[in-house]
Amino acid sequence: MAARITYARNEKLRTVKPGYPGNKLFGSQFANGEELYTPQFSNVFRWKVLTENPQKEEKKADTWVPEVVSCSEFLQSQADGLVWLGHATFVLRSGGTTLLFDPLLFDSTFLKRRHPLPCRPEELTGIDYLLLSHGHRDHLDEASIKLVARQNPQVQVLAPLRMAPLLRGMASSLPVQEAGWWQQFDLGADAALEIYYLPAAHWHRRGLNDLNKVLWGSFLIRAQGKLIYFAADSAYADHFGDIEQQFGPVDICLVGIGAYKPAFMMQLSHTNPHEAAKAANVLRAGHIVPMHHGTFDLSDEPASEPIRTLQEVATGGMLRGELHVPKVGEVLPWPEWE
C-alpha cells in the first residue's frame, strides 16, 4: 500500500515562499521536495567491500591538512567576524549577536579530526543562536551539544522539523524552535537578524529505525544588509535556483566541497567542487567560503583534491564570486566585503 502523503510545517512561523504547503511526508518520512530518497545499503557494501579506490595510493600519500590559527581572542571579543572551526562548523558574529553552526568539537569512534580545533571548546561561550542543519553525526554531535548547552544557558536552538525530541535526549533544557523549508524563525520584534530555514537535497538517519524522520535543510541569514547562505550538506539540485529566485543574489555562500567520491555513494548527498561552484554561481554569490573538507576522512578523494579543484575552477574564471580559502580559525571580516 502506498504511503500516505501529508505536509508539515511550523504553523506558528511565517512561510516566505508563496503557496508552499510545507514539507512533503511519505508516511513518516520527509522527502527531497517531491521525491523520497532512501539510501541503499547495497551502495555501502559496494563501496567498502566490492570496490577498490582507484586513488588509493594518491590518497595515502596526500597528507595535506588545513593550516590552523587560534581564534581565542576573537571568541572572547564582541567583534564582527566569520570563523571556520573545521568541517561545517562556523562562528558568525554580527553586531554583538553570535551564531554557532553545526558544532562538531570532539573526536568519536568513527570521526577523528585531522587537525586541531583553533580554540578550546570551553571558549565557545556567549553563543546566542545554535543553528543545526540536520541530524547526521558529523553535524549533530551529542558531546558538542551538551557542552554548548552547559556553557551557554541563554542559547536558543534553531533546528528543522522534528529535531526537538532528539535534542531533549542530549540537553533537556535547550529551548528549540523548529522550522520547515521556506520558513522564517521568530527571533523577536527587536532582532537585528533574520534567519530562514531553506531546502537541501539530503536525508536523515542516526539509528536503525529513524530514516528520514527528522528534516534536513540549509540556513539563510540576513545581517547588516547582507545575505549569508549556509548550504549545509546537500547534493546539487534545483533548490539553489529557487533560493536565488526567492531572495535574489546572496552575498556570502558557505558551501561544502568534500566527501564526493565514489560518486555512486556520495552524489545524492554532497556537492563536489564543480557542483559547489555551480551552486554558488546559480546563487549569484559575491563571496564563496568552502567547507566540509580537510577535517575528517569521510570518502575516497585525496585530502587536498577538493580545495585544489575549486581553486582551479576559480583561477579558470568559472567562479563568478570571490573565493576565500581561510585557515581554520582565521577571522574573516565579512561586513567589509563588497
Automatic annotation (TrEMBL):
Identification of the protein by name: MBL fold metallo-hydrolase
Residue span, Metallo-beta-lactamase domain: 98-293
Superkingdom as given in the UniProt entry: Bacteria
Organism (species): Hymenobacter nitidus
